Amino acid sequence: MAGPTDLAFDPWDPAFVADPYPAYAQLRARGRVIRYEPTDQWLVPHHADVSALLRDRRLGRTYQHRFSHEEFGRTPPPPEHEPFHTLNDHGMLDLEPPDHTRIRRLVSKAFTPRTVERLRPYVEGLANDLVAALAANGGGDLLTDVAEPLPVAVIAEMLGIPEAERGQLRPWSADICGMYELNPSEETAARAVRASVEFSDCLRELIAARRQEPGEDLISGLIAAHDEGDRLTEQEMISTAVLLLNAGHEATVNATVNGWWALLRNPDQLAALRADHSLVPAAIEELMRYDTPLQLFERWVLDDIEIDGTTIPRGSEIAMLFGSANHDPAVFTDPARLDLARKDNPHISFSAGIHYCIGAPLARMELAASMTALLRQAPTLTLAEEPKRKPNFVIRGLEGLRVEVR
After folding, report:
1. Could you tell me the residue ranges of all domains in the chain?
2. Which residue, 142, 182, 333, 389, is most buried by CB atoms nearer than 10 A?
């Protein structure tokens, strides 16, 4: 086992955050599981192990369905963080069966393929409008002009959030998602708590209005969803709506800018895509593999497990390195190369198992809509200036991506 002093893995080092993939190669060479003291976690860097552990019921996103904090050897979160944890802990992503099974089944009744497909004209129309404005201005910031407004507006439209209240959605989401980084600060926690309270209050009012006057939106669908008399509680509806916004746009925003930054650094692949727009679906999968929007996903060890002869005891936390798994040469030929024609691409950017991303079809639709609009309406798009990486490691993105359209 290796200690942190001789690992290149350092999620607080800007150089590592800028390009973690060489360090991942070192981790994979080191072994299948590596103890990392600064975060009190076990790092898992190989695709086969990450894929298997995502499906392993001896691991969980929570432990509270089986153990108290004390029984599990963990310190309860501070009372002042309670609004964040109430919001977070009632969402599907942080629940295990039977609660996860029940909530996902009910949410799936409202979040159907038909519901998603019904949004296609809105998604494609908005993508075309945003890109048309970018092109008319001769360029701009791809992040703020296209990547952010598209998925935020789509989720807001889907949930039925009024136009006047949509301006806070992205700031709320950013503040809440700050808690998913490694060892978040008290300042980060305070922002997340405030955003959790404000966002929850907004949704509580919306739910009350939809109970009185149902519409065609997802909130109305969540209120109506039932199964053998079982319904979602108000808190479950609120947590589901917040999860759909946070997970439903953070990954899409970052996949868009990470993807175009990768294309602009690989002009041969961008040229191939411009010459053949039928490559768009395969390009989206490859870009999500090549520079993974969510680099790390955590699970609690509910029962002792063994990985390559090392026993990981109950109460431990495992950090599955999605970015490393997506660059594992045991699965991907020449993984450091961007190859939009890659045929076999079992990336795990949308997770796997019972927590596979319920919004993956919508994310793919949004990414395809913006990419197709940019290829058609901004065929001369070029980089205006070198972008800066956000300091975050877990949720990987850029501060901005300034482009020119001549």
Report:
1. 4-404
2. 142
| Residue that is written with structure tokens 């001369």 in the block | 380
Return the exposure string of 243-254: e unless at least 16 CB atoms fall within 10 Å of the residue's CB, then b: bbbbbbbbbbbb
Q: Which residue has tokens 């650094």?
A: 265
CA angle (28, 33, 38) in 5-degree steps? 100
> Both tokens of residue 311?
């026993």
Residue range 305-313: mean pLDDT, rounded:
96
- Residue 217, token pair as written in the block: 């939106």
Question: Cα(145)–Cα(134) distance, rounded to whole angstroms?
Answer: 7
State the average pLDDT for the chain: 93
Q: How far, in Å, CA of 391 to CA of 397, rounded? A: 9
Give start and end residues of each alpha helix (H) in 54-98. Answer: 82-89
Output the pLDDT for position 3.
42
Q: Which helix (H) or strand (E) holds 211?
A: helix 186-212
Token pair recorded at residue 274: 């411009």
Residue with token string 């040469």: 329
Instruction: Cite the beta strand spans of 195-235 per DSSP E.
Output: 226-227, 230-231
Query: What integer is the mean pLDDT of 245-274?
Result: 93
CB-hemisphere CA count at 13 Å for 132? Answer: 6
Alpha carbons 399 and 253: distance in angstroms, whole number? 11
CA 330 vs. chain centroid, Å, equals 25
Beta-carbon-side half-sphere exposure of residue 82 (alpha carbons within 13 Å): 2
Quick one: CATH architecture of 4-404? Orthogonal Bundle (1.10)
- Give residues with Cβ within 8 angstroms of 360, minimum separation 6: 350
